[in-house]
């Protein structure tokens, strides 16, 4: 029963993530400008309302990134130029709150994008950051009232990500 419940939650999270990805991709067709939308999925409505108020334009959706120096790769949910001029990386979560390790995950994407830029799944390079990312957002859609949670300590998160990566790699030597 626990395993079935976990699978149902994972499927629900995947559906939410796919709907949010579709929303951002549809905005990308309008030069990245956020569009107000009405969706059957509550998360899309919440995010589109926030984006209209806070995002000047989306820079990417589901962008692949990698780092030779860190020897890893990933896929970042969303990048945005905010109305206040800062560049942000945004990650969607189905958790009830934002956790430090989730911000560290975003920092990993930031390090990879800063090193090599961003890519489509087929390997085509599509992005070079014009300047450093200044804020990370986790949106915990499992919360009673989901709101984007910012982290402005991007340098601290990068340090934490690198430390966690080293610990993970070293622990693999003992398995």
Quick overview of this protein structure:
The chain has helices at 2-28, 42-54, 100-116, 154-172, and strands spanning 55-67, 72-82, 87-93, 118-119, 125-127, 135-140, 149-151. It has 175 residues and is α+β, with helices and mostly antiparallel strands.
H/E series: HHEEEHEEEEH
Return Rg in Å.
16 Å
Main-sheet strand order equals: 1-2-3-6-7
Uncertain parts: 1-13
Average pLDDT rating: 92
Main beta sheet: 5 strands, mixed
Number of strands: 7
Based on helices, strands and strand pairing, what is the structural class? alpha+beta
Cα distance spanning the termini: 30 Å
Overall shape: it is globular
- Estimate percent helicity: 40-55%
Strand fraction equals: 25-35%
Specify the number of helices: 4
Q: How would you describe this structure to a colleague?
A:
- The chain has helices at 2-28, 42-54, 100-116, 154-172, and strands spanning 55-67, 72-82, 87-93, 118-119, 125-127, 135-140, 149-151.
- The chain has 4 helices and 7 strands, in the order ααβββαββββα.
- Helix 1 (2-28) packs parallel to helix 2 and helix 3 crosses helix 4 (154-172).
- The protein is of the alpha+beta class.
- Strand 1 and strand 2 (72-82) form a beta hairpin.
- The strands form 2 sheets. A 5-stranded mixed β-sheet has the order 1-2-3-6-7.
- The two termini are 30 Å apart.
How is this fold's topology laid out?
Layout (H helix, E strand, L loop, with lengths): L1 H27 L13 H13 E13 L4 E11 L4 E7 L6 H17 L1 E2 L5 E3 L7 E6 L8 E3 L2 H19 L3
Parallel strand pairs: 3-6
Antiparallel strand pairs: 1-2, 2-3, 4-5, 6-7
